[in-house]
Amino acid sequence: ALVGVISFPPQNYPLYIRSIPTENELKFHYTVHTSLDVVDEKISAMGKALVDQRELYLGLLYPTEDYKVYGYVTNSKVKFVMVVDSSNTALRDNEIRSMFRKLHNSYTDIMCNPFYNPGDRIHSRAFDTMVNSMMMQVC
């Protein structure tokens, strides 16, 4: 499983990436970067309808043979990507949505920290703890 936080356009660089297990980390990085195109397509396809919404849960971006990739976009166009194992059939869409909400709330807490510069990589023990507990639930 993987959780990634990607910066706002046009840079689209990773602010935070955590994967479990770590031996497939490079494959997960590739999956996250390929999913950004799908995220951009979904956002442009939805157009102005998204502007009125408070949360931008994009749902399943695409399934592969081994993984399912889910996406979420904040109002400031920061993207959250979650990669979960395809064999995990216990995860429902509303559970994925609530995980993204938790992730968004923790990200908001980081943004409220006066010592954090927006656009810097995320180095937060509280964020790590929340992501690790979330990933244990998924794995």
UniProtKB/TrEMBL annotation:
Q: Name one GO biological process term.
A: endoplasmic reticulum to Golgi vesicle-mediated transport
Top-rank taxon of the source lineage equals Eukaryota
GO CC, any one term = endoplasmic reticulum
Principal location listed in the UniProt entry: cytoplasm
Q: Name one Pfam family in it.
A: Sedlin_N
User: What is the annotated localization of this protein?
Assistant: Cytoplasm, Perinuclear region; Endoplasmic reticulum; Golgi apparatus
Coiled-coil residue windows: none
* Keywords of the record: Cytoplasm, Endoplasmic reticulum, ER-Golgi transport, Golgi apparatus, Transport
The family this protein is said to belong to: Belongs to the TRAPP small subunits family. Sedlin subfamily.
This protein is called Trafficking protein particle complex subunit 2-like protein
Organism, scientific name: Hemiprocne comata
